[in-house]
Structure formats: C-alpha cells, structure tokens
Design goal:
Layout (H helix, E strand, L loop, with lengths): L2 H14 L5 H16 L4 E5 L1 H9 L4 H14 L4 E6 L2 E6 L2 H10 L4 E2 L22 H12 L4 H6 L1 H21 L5 E2 H18 L13 H6 L13 H8 L1 H6 L7 H16 L12 H13 L8 H17 L1 H15 L1 H16 L7 H6 L2 H12 L5 E6 L3 E2 L6 E2 L4 E5 H5 L38 H18 E5 L8 E3 L3 E3 L6 E6 L2
Parallel strand pairs: 1-2, 3-9
Antiparallel strand pairs: 2-3, 4-6, 5-13, 6-9, 7-8, 10-13, 11-12
The structure holds protoporphyrin IX containing FE.
The site of protoporphyrin IX containing FE (HEM) has 23 residues, from helix 15, helix 16 and helix 21.
Subcellular location: Endoplasmic reticulum membrane; Microsome membrane
Membrane topology: Peripheral membrane protein
Protein name: Cytochrome P450 3A12
C-alpha cells in the first residue's frame, strides 16, 4: 500500500468508522439542516455513508471532496455545509471567502485536531506540524527564518551538487539498459532525501550514490510500515482515545528506528560532535537546538531536550517526504508528454547556463520565468496536497451572510476543486503553462496554501525542483516509455490519478 493510501486508510478508519458517532448523526442531522438552511446556506445532508461508500470504491478523500465542490458549483453557491460523523463541515468555494479564512480572519481558525489528534503521541505531538497556540507560533517564527529566500540562497551550492548527482544516477541507470524506462519517481525520491538530509539535517545521506536503498531510505521506508501489520492498527486508536496513558508509556505512531535516527542527529548536535556534519551554512539543526534553549531552556516543566529536537527535525522532514518527489516526478511526466513545452524549457535552461559561464547560480536561476510557469501548471494539475482543513476556534460571521460559523465546525477547502474549476482556469484538463504568465491566480491556486499556516518549505521546494529540471533537461530528452501510463486514469473524468512512485519515462542522453 502506498504511503498516501495508508494515511488515507488510517484517517478514514479512525475518523469515519467510530460508528458510535452514528447516534450523533441521528440526533443532530435535523438540527444541522436547520443550522445551515435557516441561514440561507446550501446544505448537502449527512455525507457519512456516501463518504464510506466512495472510500470502499477506491475514491480517496481528496477526490471525494472535489466531487462535493463540484456539487456546490453546480448549485451556483459560494459555500455549502454538510455533516459527517457528528461534525459540521463548511465548504467554501468563493476565493474571497477562502482568502478571509486563510489570511484576513485567520485568528478565528486553528488546526483540525478533533479527528485523528496526535496529542497523546509523545513524539510527533512535540513537532511544529502538530503544535498548537503559543508553542506553535513561537516555534514557527523561528523555523520560518531558516526557509526564507535569502537563507535558501545559502543552500544553493548543495542543491546544485545534488542536481549533478541526479544526472550521474540517471546515467548509471541508462547504462544498465532498461526496457521499461527509468523509474523517475524513485530518482526524484532519492534526490529529495539527499537534499533534505543535507540542508535540514546536515547529513551526507548518499541516496543517489546507490542503486539500492541508502540508510536514510531504509529508515524512512519504515514510516507507517507498521500498518502492514494488522495488530499495530490499535495504536492510533489508543493514542486518540487515551492520550495521557499513551504519553505516559511513550507510545508513538512513528517506527522506533526513525525515532532513533532523529535522536542520533539531535544528540550529535547537543554534543556538538556530529561526524557527518557537512558545513554550518544555514544550519537548521543548530537552529532547532537554539529554539529549544530559547523557548524551554529555563522552564522547570520543559520537554526533554533530545526528544524535542529529534521530533522537530522529524516534523520538518515529513512534509516534504512525499510531496516534493511527487512534484518532481510529475514534472518529468508532463514534460515527457509535451515535447513543445520541454523544448521551450530546455532553451531557457541552456540560455541560463551559457550566459553564466557554463554554470548555474542562484541569481540566474531565480530570473528564469518559464520554469516557474511549468512547475506551477504541474502543481495545479497534480497538487501533492489536495485539501486544506481548519477548525473554527472563535465564532465567525461569514461576510455578506447572516450565517455564523460555530466553534468546532470544520472548514474544508478542496484544492482539486479550485484547480480544476473552469471559472478560474480555462480548459482545466489541458496542460498549459502559459496560463501562469503574469496572471494573478490568488486563492484559486493554492498548492502551498496561504496565510499563517502556509507551507514553510515553498522556497526550498521551488529551488530544488528547478535545479532538478535544469540538470535533467541539460543532459536528457524525456519521452514516454512503454511503462508510462498514457492516458492517465481519470476519476470521474476529472482528475488524473497516478502513483508518483511509479512514474516511468525514457531518458535519452543529449550529446
Ligand atoms: C511540493 C512540495 C510541498 C507542498 C505541495 C507543500 C504544501 C503544503 C501545504 C498545502 C501545507 C498546509 C498549509 C495549510 O494548512 O494552510 C503545508 C504545510 C507545511 N509544510 Fe509544506 N509542502 C511541500 C513541501 C514542504 C517541505 C519540503 C517542507 C520542509 C521544509 C515543508 C514544510 C511544511 C511545514 C512545516 C508545514 C506546516 C506549517 C504549520 O503548520 O505552521 N513543506 N505544506
């Protein structure tokens, strides 16, 4: 089972199947209808059963909410409400309302933590991605400072080198001769792990140097692997329902080898004797350590230093673990299918390379515009994240209506719904990078979200994706291979679905 499917299954089991909630459905359903309809809001009913039915039919949560988005669009509504598993869901479609929720009035909304809350998980609950309130705010401010464009510039040489390593890896794969084409998904995965290992953990992970899995690949391969074992499915439920006991007994969803791996990096930083250290430019491990000292160092009731550093290093590598390789391999896929776009992009890459004395540098790469358009169009059609969620924490009167969103209601924004809405993106099924030429797509194109909780890694992602494309296109022509899935499978004739780990393309050396 792919990681995404596992997460989806996990989420669905612990979110949908506690059918104890059914009694809430029976009791609350009439009230919920009244709650929405008396305020003039379109009500789509209780979708619990429909969601489970779709889930069993293999429709993921992302695709399901896109279908719901399209129902709201057909009804010509700006937003709608529905109920599921005892919760009220609010589904905005209007870009200005989405902007208000994510940015202008963001103080009314927090993290969705009622569904699969990991508060009881002693490890992940310490990381930024699960932190709440003041702890989140302060930690985020510190971590964000390591991912600004000027800090990312300091990582340029490292990433550039990994671009060269990616080319060397692909050349070795080609020399082996394979009929199926290159597993570009795997190459992108190795490249991403090496970039994250070096820029975030100060480690030389060497994944692109080996054909088989490197140490970090093996360790990360354990992520959620325990869910292949039926008996381990008890863990999330236990953590969810008995958080105190789970914390006391140090229960975590994360495999113990992964925890050990991050603890080792944390210990190395604390002893200041990490033998794998590759330089202290934009040293993120040090920053995480100093954040702990600043926020908790003097507190009596402080989280364990090594655990906190390890959890936060883990928490900053999780968000890019599958998303970034998905983006890079989907770029390769669309370029293989659109030779005209590939040629135009290669011209830009070569011009940048040649006008800088036969090298890439940060300033020149930042000036490239077509590469941004290609990446953005890939993100629009194949967004690695499909949904944004918020929970209302302070009553919110929806502008222009008499409807007030209540505390505890969940807001879901369907990115696929927005990205494939022909009202905002003409001919949305057509891959056309030109649609991003100088046009403002604010709040109709949100692959990294916007506002206080938006993606911290955006500049790093863009830089590493550009460098992968620059190096690959200078050296290879990408074409479909016998194993490239064409056409992609379409769900509801709307969204292409593909497992990014199995993106095969042909790479032909450019002499
Ligand atoms: C193509 C790759 C990526 C995509 C599409 C992506 C997208 C997103 C999205 C949509 C969110 C949720 C924002 C929200 O709820 O409003 C998010 C959160 C986050 N991302 Fe990324 N991400 C990517 C890679 C990365 C990488 C490489 C990093 C590591 C530096 C990263 C760090 C984070 C963090 C820390 C958060 C949570 C922020 C918070 O809760 O305050 N992401 N990302």
């Amino acid at each position: 089972m792919a990681l995404g499917d596992k997460i989806n299954t996990l989420f669905s089991i612990y979110f949908i199947f506690p059918l104890a909630k059914v009694y809430l459905y029976l009791i609350r359903n009439p009230k919920t209808r009244e709650y929405f309809e008396s305020n003039g809001i379109l009500y789509l009913g209780d979708v619990s059963v429909d969601y489970v039915k779709n889930f069993i039919d293999g429709i993921s949560g992302t695709k399901y909410w896109m279908k719901v988005y399209n129902r709201i669009k057909q009804a010509n509504a700006d937003l709608a409400g529905c109920a599921m598993a005892g919760y009220n869901f609010v589904l905005p479609r209007n870009p200005s309302l989405i902007k208000a929720i994510l940015v202008k009035d963001a103080s009314h909304f927090g993290r969705v933590d009622t569904l699969l809350s990991l508060k009881g998980d002693y490890f992940v609950s310490k990381s930024l991605i699960f932190a709440q309130g003041e702890a989140w705010k302060k930690t985020r401010a510190k971590f964000e400072s390591a991912f600004t464009p000027s800090k990312i510039k300091q990582n340029f040489d490292q990433v550039n080198q990994f671009g060269k390593n990616l080319v060397a890896y692909l050349n070795r794969e080609l020399d082996r001769g394979t009929k199926a084409g290159i597993n570009f998904g795997l190459a992108a995965h190795k490249y991403t792990l090496d970039v994250a290992g070096s820029t975030t953990l100060n480690l030389n992970t060497g994944s692109l140097q080996t054909r088989g899995p490197s140490h970090i690949e093996q360790v990360w391969g354990k992520f959620f692997v325990s869910f292949d074992n039926f008996w381990n499915w008890w863990k999330p439920g236990f953590i969810q329902w008995f958080p105190r006991i789970a914390t006391y007994f140090k229960i975590t969803l994360v495999d113990k080898e992964i925890v050990q791996f991050y603890r080792h990096v944390a210990k190395g930083e604390m002893n200041n004797s990490n033998e794998n250290e590759v330089g202290d430019k934009n040293n993120f491990v040090q920053l995480v350590h100093s954040t702990w000292q600043e926020l908790y160092g003097r507190h009596v009731d402080r989280p364990d230093e090594e655990e906190w550093i390890a959890a936060n290093l883990f928490g900053m590598t999780v968000p890019g673990y599958q998303t970034t390789p998905t983006l890079i391999s989907m770029c390769a896929y669309v370029l293989a299918l659109h030779q005209d776009v590939q040629d135009k992009l290669r011209d830009e890459v070569n011009a940048t390379f040649e006008s800088n004395g036969g090298e890439f540098n940060y300033a020149a790469v930042s000036q490239m515009s077509y590469v941004d358009m290609v990446i953005n169009e890939t993100l629009r059609m194949h967004s690695p994240v499909g949904l944004l969620g918020r929970m209302c924490t302070k009553e919110y009167p929806v502008p222009g209506t008499k409807y007030v969103i209540k505390v505890g209601d969940i807001i879901l924004i369907s990115l696929y719904g927005l990205h494939y809405d022909e009202e905002y993106h003409e001919n949305p099924q057509v891959f056309n990078p030109e649609r991003f030429s100088g046009v403002n797509k604010d709040f109709t194109f949100l692959p990294f979200s916007q506002g206080l909780k938006s993606c911290i890694g955006i500049w790093m992602v863009m830089m590493q994706t550009k460098m992968a494309l620059c190096h690959v296109l200078r050296n290879f022509r990408l074409t479909p291979s016998p194993d490239t899935l064409i056409p992609m499978k379409f769900v509801n004739s709307q969204v292409p679905v593909m497992d990014p780990e199995k993106v095969f393309v042909n790479c032909t050396k450019i002499e």
